[in-house]
Write a structure and sequence with these properties.
With about 400 residues, the chain is an alpha/beta fold. It has 13 helices and 10 strands. α3 packs parallel to α4 (about 115-135), α6 (about 210-240) crosses α13 and α10 (about 315-325) packs parallel to α11 (about 340-350). The two termini are about 15 Å apart. The model is unreliable at about 190-210 (pLDDT under 50).
Length: about 400
């Protein structure tokens, strides 16, 4: 197939991938919005009693979601949201069940991520243990949890994207019920309604405390609104950035075919995007070849040593000095487009002859304005959870487009 024909095939496939995401997103949240609202209420009760969120997952892909949901709850990025206790238990620590047995307590919320059939048995055992301990249990595939919210898609990338939106929505909307403390069972204090710093986001917080159904109805409406927002943002990202994704895919394919490797990185939730992207290249869906990829967020000893001895701005650039070679590629994630250590790493990569791809939010920040990467995909939003969800679609699409790019053809 000629290069032009391959590009046409890839462009057509991009349209198909967007259509699948749009349809699945609409169906999933339309079907589950009521249950999601009620789950937010039950989670708020557990947190109010001193419970924690315990995220569980054993595969490399599931690990990225475990780390992502934990960092979102512990380190909120929206003004007015409080930090909530969350712990991630992943495969690098060994089998899930012995780890969970040491951590789970009766008021906790156990949330299991199942990447494929190989994970199912271990996840089911962990969920069974959590239920026996008295935990509230959540899963996104059949695992014996009380709350199972399975996405309506056969595509593992689409399922993961829907799950990411869902746990972001749970994190955002669980806070609504903290402002209606009288609706939280098992809590001794019955304080009157306190809208606090979140009142400007949720005008319905003025309802009476005894009216649970009214609050659930408003939260359900917020779920649907957030799903519509990410659907529109995903479409805008993939349509406006489609040409850049096709060009980036061709550049990555050329690097891989020449023996190069991919280096990926980001901060916080973006670090978990790097984890997931690397997992997708190393452990792809059936029928695709594994590709050489390194996650620069993976080694805590290296990250903390550089941050402590030199400074956080050097944590990725120093690793590029160590690992990067001309002919390699780099994939950077930044919701702001202005993270100092991302900018320093992009500059170091260019000095060393790496092809650079950046996925950024807001208006693209310095990365886009100063053309600091060879290929920049902008997700135009100021809402960090929605940015990350749309970026997940972008890098999943990029992963597939790499396999559709013509081999050995210079971009």
């Amino acid at each position: 197939m000629s290069g032009a024909a391959a590009t046409d095939v890839a462009a057509a496939r991009l349209e198909q991938l967007l259509a699948e995401r749009t349809d699945s997103n609409r169906r999933y949240f339309a079907a589950e919005s009521e249950r999601i609202a009620r789950l937010c209420h039950r989670m708020a009760e557990r947190f109010a009693r001193g419970g924690r969120l315990v995220a569980l997952g054993s595969s490399p892909v599931a690990r990225s979601d475990v780390r992502h949901v934990a960092v979102e709850f512990v380190h909120p990025v929206i003004v007015g949201k409080r930090a909530l206790p969350a712990i991630g238990i992943a495969g690098e620590g060994g089998p899930l069940v012995p780890q969970a047995a040491l951590v789970l307590e009766p008021d906790d919320i156990a949330i299991a991520f199942v990447d494929d059939r190989a994970d199912a048995g271990e996840a089911r055992e962990a969920i069974s243990l959590a239920r026996a301990r008295g935990c509230l249990t959540i899963a996104f595939a059949p695992a014996g949890a009380e709350w199972e919210l399975e996405p309506p898609s056969a595509d593992p990338f689409v399922r993961q994207e829907l799950v990411e939106t869902l746990y972001h929505v749970l994190w955002e909307l669980v806070h609504v019920f903290f402002e209606h403390r009288g609706l939280l069972e098992g809590r001794a204090a019955r304080r009157v309604h306190d809208s606090g710093a979140s009142s400007f986001l949720y005008p319905f917080l003025g309802e009476q405390e005894h009216d649970l159904e009214a609050v659930v109805a408003d939260v359900r409406g917020s779920v649907l609104k957030k799903a519509d927002e990410v659907g529109a943002l995903r479409e805008r990202t993939l349509r406006e950035g489609g040409g850049e994704l096709l060009r980036a895919a061709a550049a990555l394919r050329f690097a891989f075919d020449g023996g190069g490797k991919l280096l990926a990185f980001g901060n916080g939730g973006s670090a978990t995007d790097a984890m997931d992207a690397v997992a997708d290249f190393r452990h792809p869906p059936a029928g695709w070849p594994s590709r050489r990829a390194l996650d620069l967020t993976e080694d805590a000893a290296i990250l903390t040593a550089i941050a402590n001895d030199i400074g956080p701005e050097a944590i990725f650039a120093r690793q590029i000095i160590a690992y990067g070679r001309a002919g390699d590629a780099l994939l950077a994630f930044s919701t702001s487009g202005g993270s100092g250590n991302v900018i320093a790493a992009l500059a170091e990569a260019r000095r060393r002859g790496l092809v650079t791809v950046a996925m950024v939010g807001y208006d693209g920040g310095r990365v886009a304005a100063e053309h600091l990467a060879d290929h920049v995909v902008v997700t135009s939003s100021e809402h960090v959870p929605r940015i990350q969800e749309a970026q997940a679609s972008a890098y999943h699409v990029l992963r597939e487009l790499v396999e559709l790019a013509p081999p050995g053809v210079a971009p």
